[in-house]
Amino acid sequence: MTPTPAEDTAALEKVTQTTQARHTIPTPVLVRGTGLLGTSIGLGLRAAGLEVLLSDPSPSALAVAQDIGAGTILDSESAAATGRQPGTVVVAAPPDVAGEEIIRALEMYPSAVVLDIASVKGAIAEQVHRAVIDQRITASQASRYVGTHPMAGRERSGPVAARGALFTAAPWVICAEDSTRPDSVAAAEDLARLLGATVFTMTAAEHDDSVALISHLPQIAASLLASRLQDTSTLALSLAGNGLRDTTRIAASDPQLWVQILTANAPQIAPILHGMREDLDRLITTLENPTADGSRLDVAQLISEGNRGQARIPGKHGAPPQAFSVVTVLVDDTPGQIVAVLTDVAEAGINVEDLRLDHSAGYEVGMLEVSVVPGRKEKLVEELTNRGWKVV
Ligand SMILES: NC(=O)c1ccc[n+]([C@@H]2O[C@H](COP(=O)([O-])OP(=O)(O)OC[C@H]3O[C@@H](n4cnc5c(N)ncnc54)[C@H](O)[C@@H]3O)[C@@H](O)[C@H]2O)c1
Ligand SMILES: O=C(O)C(=O)C[C@]1(C(=O)O)C=C[C@@H](O)C=C1
């Protein structure tokens, strides 16, 4: 069901061929760290026609990234022989080592733009400043560095999980400083845009404050929630519906990565957890005495507050929130069914905004949820029903 990286890249190529704009990214681009993010960036840049070089301390991660088409392994001997240097270095290493990798790249490649994509920005900027103070690098070398963070990812790690289209319509934060060279900032912005992302400019401190709530709290909440399931009976788990799946997907994330993210941003996260604990304490007190005066109002208030927060989450492409209409189609669990439904949707001239497949435990059928803009729902139901599909 999920496209392979090659299919994904082919689809992306079609898009980038038509949207490819002029850019200021010095090439070749060296991706240092070929895990989920580095390989996705390599795939996306290759699809846009850029030359990409790859390096990673893990030979297997490197080989897989090259095999699936994210770029060519940087051969340091032939690079030294030809004198060819990367024009841009994208450090896509784990947060703990990103600072050192940035400093090393600034030293090794005297004219390259160097950017990183780690999930925390203040601690890494601080390491680069410290390297200048300690005279390991000059201020001029440091001015080629731009801290960035694509707000797109997956709950899986490694190059096998990479997707060239990962960044399409996702926010990509650029944390330039006054001392950052304008050509480095322009290259970082162009790279984000070339991969289909939307650029947001903010300081490292603003970024870290924002992601504490927007990204780090969701991970903590999902992990705490899913950890309750560890000793649950299989029977109870077999009742799991979308509520549980929607709220626990990212609980499958890599512990090694998240221990680095959460500790690096701990001062921003802790106050938010205190606020959440207050709400939780209030709810516990209420539910321990659910028939007391005001208890129902208290619970309703809590859910309403959640409604208000949820309604503020922006929709696709950063547009205002828009509730898509969902049409659920019953499909046999056999090859070709999904393609057949989607072909019929396309023939009806209706755009698919989102797609999701659910299986009911114990049945050989799937429920394909096709999201469309609200005004198109009735037409889609009619078209699919006329073509013999069971719309539920
Ligand atoms: N996973 C996400 O959803 C996500 C989203 C946005 C940003 N990020 C950031 O991207 C970076 C990479 O995350 P990922 O999800 O791709 O992790 P990953 O585990 O999939 O890949 C990390 C890669 O870095 C390599 N590596 C380890 N030490 C290195 C070093 N010293 N120099 C170069 N490479 C090294 C590893 O061998 C591995 O191949 C992290 O800084 C993370 O914070 C992750
Ligand atoms: O969607 C996911 O699976 C993610 O993990 C994405 C997510 C996020 O919180 O949005 C997680 C951490 C990254 O730093 C950036 C993006």
In this entry the ligands are:
nicotinamide-adenine-dinucleotide, prephenic acid
The CATH topology of the largest domain is given as Rossmann fold
Could you give the order of strands across the largest sheet? 3-2-1-4-5-6-7-8
Strand coverage percent: 5-15%
End-to-end gap: 21 Å
Percent of residues in helical segments?
A: 40-55%
What CATH architecture of the largest domain do you see?
Answer: 3-Layer(aba) Sandwich
Topology as H/E string? HEHEHEHEHEHHEEHEHHHHHHEHEEHE
Count of strand segments: 12
What can be said about the biggest beta sheet?
8 strands, mixed
CATH class of the largest domain: Alpha Beta
- Rounded to an integer in angstroms, the radius of gyration calculated over CA atoms is 24 Å
**Low-pLDDT residue spans:** 1-19
Mean pLDDT over all positions: 91
Annotation field: number of helices: 16
Rough shape?
globular
Question: Strand pairing plus helix content: what structural class?
Answer: alpha/beta
**CATH homology-level superfamily of the largest domain:** NAD(P)-binding Rossmann-like Domain
Provide the domain count: 3
